[in-house]
Amino acid sequence: MKKITFKHVILFVLCTSLTSTISLAQEFLKEISLNEQVLSSTQIIEGKVISRTSFWDANHHNIYTANTVEVYKVFKGQSTLETIEVITSGGTVGLDNEEVTPSLELRDNDMGVFLLQDSTILLSSNSQLSRFKSNSSVQGFFKYNLINNSVSNPFVKHFGITSEFYNELMTLTNSGFINVNSISVDNLISQNQAFRGGSVINNFTPSSITAGTKSILTINGAGFGATNGTVGFRDSNDGGTSYFVALDSQIISWSNTQIQIEVPDRAGSGTIQVNGFITSGSSLAVPYAETNVESDAVSSGTFVAYQNRHVNDNASGGYTWQMQTDFDANASAKASFLRAFDSWICETGINWINGAVTTTDVVASDGINIIRFDNGAELPVGVLGRCTTRSSGCFINGGTSLAWYVSELDIQFNDTTNWNYGPSTPTFTQYDFESVAVHELGHGHQLVHVIDSNAIMHYSISNGDSNRVLGANDIAGAEDVQTRSNSSSVCSQTAMTDFDCNPLSVSDAILEENISMYPIPAKSSLFIKNASNTILKNAIIYDVRGQLISKIDLSESASLTEINVSQFASGVYFINIKSETASVTKKFIIE
Questions:
Q1: Architecture of the domain spanning 319-485
Q2: Most buried in the list 5, 62, 299, 339, measured by CB within 10 Å?
Q3: How far is CA 473 from CA 134, 341, 442, 451, in A?
Q4: Measured at the alpha carbon of residue 39, what is the angle toward residues 38 and 44, in degrees to the nearest 5?
């Protein structure tokens, strides 16, 4: 069964022995098999990231990062390359940042196998090194875990790097590998395992913490060392199969027995790891995570993670999105997207509006917050949808720190995917468009992935499944971003104002106070309670597209009315309740 993920994984489908392959549920991607990747790759190497530098492309449309990779082995392609550059989408140049989700995001010292294709992207800076791009985006990097001898991408995990994974690659390429550098993976694994003795994590506090919010985790134990090392958290961008290491600047204090550290934005629920080999016995819970912008603009070489926020970009309190002509002409896609759109703005108050249709048909730094389908193979193979956030920064506090805000948002969807536009649920062979849209809009809201199957920002979903209803943690994270966004101006930009779904008159406000509904979400019945003496006339139910679903006579109703909603499709609905003098509209959810 092919899977999707929001950028990630973990659903063990097969687990046999320490030399087995594990299949994982995935993010909002379509799985591309290793065989397909090998056949379509021009270069396959084992290597390690040794440095990263970001550049604008030659047209100043998008930012890319050149990841310099030291080559250890070549499984396919040119055998004389000792160092190469892997070009990935996004990065930070000066006070401009671009975050592309999903896309491959590498860190210094990431080691594994890269399945690559020649890069045709023209950057503003030339290089003497050969430049490649990852085949199938995040799926083209198989990251090593040199503690438990495993290698994984968002869809599969192999145990036995040299005994199993090497052999599988050589079988698919029908040739052996060529040693470019004498690095031995087996020796590295043995050395790391030998370091374990005498070191332990006893506990950490708190046991539940948010990520990317400047929250501080305290880790207690022994054998951490007297000087700063590393702290890794389960990476929400691959479902926790690997660890994401916090920045050096996020270490607040370090001793042999205690560490205090700021939890990075990609931290997901699961175990934590100190110095790459000391693993906690219990799991940390991360209910939500917010996007950070990493920059070394204050002090070159010292990267700091900064929180982001929204502003009054359109002079009407927020941001104006524009559907590209072809997308707008697809009535089903448009309606599905707007349902996802309304889920966020009416729940969190983010001030987004859908504006005029645009003929612009490109994702670029052009001041247009575009919603579009890609054209042909524009998106990487296997990517269903993608959100691009562009942010701008400014120096504050006398140049000792930075502030960042969202300057542009773009969303694009794969135009060849077998989409289910709803509102009915998808079949087994379909991918649910509204689920992808509400998730990508969550990234636009400045949320990143979590490992929680009940959350919209959960890293994974499968074909045939849908996840359209915002959960409590999705809402809590979004509201935290929103509170920061509407509290004050930043970088000469005025603050965002909350979007008001239901402005009320005095009479409407009185009715609003006395009408309540339960349960939310509803399954088979929705109860309307009237706590006033006001005689109600009727109730009209609409879906998020404004389509009339049902009209109920309330003129003979008592203080409590039951409405049968068992035949309604799952999703978000609005009910307009009227009396002789007032009217009020409330939102409810069917699960």
A1: 3-Layer(aba) Sandwich (3.40)
A2: 5
A3: 33, 18, 12, 12
A4: 40
CA dihedral 117, 121, 122, 124 (to 10 degrees): -110
Start-end of CATH 2.40.50.120 domains in the chain = 32-194
Within the chain, which residue ranges are assigned CATH 2.60.40.10? 200-287
Which tens digit of pLDDT belongs to each residue from 135-151? 999 999 999 999 889 99
Give per-residue pLDDT as tens, 331-377. 999 999 999 999 999 889 999 999 999 999 999 999 999 999 999 88
Query: Running DSSP on this structure, what letter comes out for residue 242?
Result: S
Distance CA 204, CA 267 (A): 15
Residue 160 has a CB neighbour count (10 Å cut-off) of: 18
Closest CA relative to residue 56, chosen from 323, 390, 349: 390
Q: What is the location of CATH 3.40.390.10 in the chain?
A: 319-485
Q: Report CA Rg, the chain.
A: 25
Q: How far is CA 78 from CA 38, 74, 135, 162, in A?
A: 15, 8, 16, 21
Q: What is the CATH number of domain 200-287?
A: 2.60.40.10
Q: Tell me: domain 32-194, CATH 3.10.129.10, correct?
A: no
- Tell whether omega for the bond before 154 is within 30 degrees of 0, i.e. cis: no
Full 3-state SS string of 259-282: EEEECCCCEEEEEEEECCCEECCC
For residues 377, 11, 478, 529, the Cα torsion angle rounded to the nearest 10 degrees is 120
3-state per-residue secondary structure call for 149-213: CEEECCCEEEECHHHHHHHHHHHHHCCCCEECCCCCHHHHHHHHHHCCCCCEEEEEECCECCECC
Which range has the worst mean pLDDT, 61-65, 226-230, 543-547? 543-547
* Tens digits of residue pLDDT in 163-186: 999 999 999 999 999 999 989 999
464 alpha carbon, distance to own chain's centre: 20
Q: How far apart (Å, rounded) are the C-alpha atoms in residues 591 and 439?
A: 17
Question: How many Å apart are CA 142 and CA 502, to the nearest integer?
Answer: 49
Residue 335 neighbours by CB distance under 10 Å: 19
Q: What is the DSSP string of 426-469?
A: P-TT-EEHHHHHHHHHHHHTTB--BS-TTSTTBSEEETT----S
Q: Name the DSSP class of 82.
A: S
- The tens digit of pLDDT for each residue in 205-258 reads 999 999 999 999 999 999 999 999 999 999 998 888 889 999 999 999 999 999
Q: Give the three-class secondary structure for 170.
A: helix
Mean pLDDT value across the chain: 90
**pTM higher than 0.90, yes or no?**
no
**Is beta strand 111-118 parallel, antiparallel or unpaired with respect to 141-145?**
antiparallel
DSSP 221: E
Domain spanning 506-590 has what CATH number? Answer: 2.60.40.3080
